[in-house]
Write a structure and sequence with these properties.
Length: 66
């Protein structure tokens, strides 16, 4: 499980955009987003760096959490 803090994700449209970005990278990924906490949890076979890059390309700033 990869977890990111994405503080610039502020609405339902943002959640949809981030989800589509991750699913575009890995269609089988599981994406769990807590908008209130600005956290994105991703279960994917792709490396964390690639997932973060996909979120960045969608216009957001993911910060990896331990």
């Amino acid at each position: 499980m990869i977890t990111f803090q994405v503080n610039d994700m502020t609405c339902g449209h943002c959640v949809s955009t981030v989800t589509k970005a991750v699913k575009g990278l890995d269609a089988t990924a599981q994406v769990d987003i807590d908008l209130a906490a600005h956290k994105v949890k991703v279960e994917s076979a792709r490396p964390a760096g690639e997932v973060a890059a996909a979120i960045r390309e969608a216009g957001f700033t993911p910060e990896p959490l331990a």
